[in-house]
Design a protein that fits this description.
The protein is of the alpha+beta class and about 350 residues long. Helices cover about 60% and strands about 20% of the residues.
């Protein structure tokens, strides 16, 4: 939109670089070009402003395929005004000299023209295409057909319009049909997911089995080694017992030999001692016999009084030690009487 200011009955227009401005006065063209800036009088000026930049036109329309299925087409057409003078002559691009606003709706007219033309060519393509084929290859086919149709449309060059590009965003069926079409794919995807899950579980089970077998093999190997260890320990224990028994036998033999030697020595010593004792006893006996014989000879040669004296002496030697003797008168009288009798005899 042009920028218009007021000064003392005059108007000043300042256009944009992307807007082509045409100024007529009295049927004569005074200013023509993009990005202009000039003064004019509102009562005598006829102004038009044509955009010359690239513009995007989004369109959505419905079509029907050969199998009678409704399809929504979403497309975008990029266009520009290649001939501003021709476009201003064919469409109402005039602006208000006081506000700079378009008096009509020229861009809507262009949009309607482009949309109807594109829709006509898209419907022509989709009417001969099934829904499945349209969903698979319909985007490219519709884009190509719309681009060719817009390029060959005579009304566009006659209006000064140039189509730059055509893009078909999507072809979508009705929601119910779309859900129905998605069901087999979803089922297939679900089947693939289930198959992957089953395969993953099978792999997990196989790995668990391998792990269990490895653990069982490890346990068997450990049991076998424990058995070998027990056997080796038994062998070592038997060897140790045999060695201890042999050592005990050696010690017992040595002890027995030492006992025998000690017994032999003790027996020899006892024999020698017995012999010595017997010899001593024999010698003592002989000495006693000789002494007894000599004593008998001596006693046989002496008189009776001497024998009585010796007997008393021997008796006195064998009497116990008497600390004190109490002699009663009766005993003393008897003794004196006995001694008196003996003397008289």
């Amino acid at each position: 939109m042009a920028d218009i200011t007021r000064r003392l009955g005059w108007r000043h227009l300042r256009g944009a670089p992307t807007a082509h401005v045409r100024h007529h006065r009295g049927g004569k063209l005074l200013h023509d070009g993009p990005g202009l800036s000039f003064w004019f009088r509102a009562l005598t000026a006829a102004l038009s402003e044509v955009p010359v930049d690239d513009r995007e036109l989004a369109m959505t329309f419905h079509a029907r395929t050969s199998d009678f299925q409704d399809v929504a087409v979403q497309a975008t057409v990029t266009y520009r005004v290649s001939d501003p003078a021709l476009a201003a002559a064919r469409l109402d691009f005039s602006i208000d000299p006081d506000t700079g606003v378009w008096r009509g709706a020229p861009l809507e007219q262009l949009g309607t023209l482009l949309t109807e033309t594109a829709q006509q060519h898209a419907l022509d393509v989709l009417a001969r295409t099934t829904l499945a084929a349209a969903l698979v290859d319909g985007v490219a086919a519709v884009r190509e057909r719309v681009a060719v149709g817009l390029g060959a449309e005579p009304r566009l060059p006659a209006t000064g319009i140039e189509v730059v590009a055509v893009r078909v965003v999507a072809l979508r069926p009705e929601p119910e049909v779309e859900r129905a079409l998605r069901t087999p794919a979803r089922e297939l995807i679900q089947q693939e997911a289930d198959r992957a899950t089953y395969e993953r579980r099978a792999v997990a089970v196989e790995r668990e089995r391998a792990i269990a077998e490895n653990e069982l093999d490890s346990q068997i190997e450990l049991a076998r080694r424990e058995e070998q260890l027990v056997d080796q320990r038994g062998t070592n224990a038997r060897r140790e017992a045999e060695e201890h028994a042999a050592a005990d036998a050696v010690r017992a033999g040595a002890e027995a030999a030492r006992t025998v030697r000690l017994a032999d020595a003790e027996a020899a010593r006892s024999v020698r001692l017995a012999r010595a004792e017997a010899e001593g006893a024999r010698e003592v006996g002989e000495a006693r016999a000789q002494a007894q014989a000599a004593w008998l000879r001596v006693h046989g040669e002496v008189d009776v009084a001497t024998l009585h004296a010796l007997t008393g002496t021997r008796l006195a030697e064998n009497l116990p030690n008497i600390e004190s003797v109490t002699v009663s008168p009766d005993v003393l009288t008897g003794l004196l009487a006995r001694f008196g009798t003996g003397e008289r005899a």
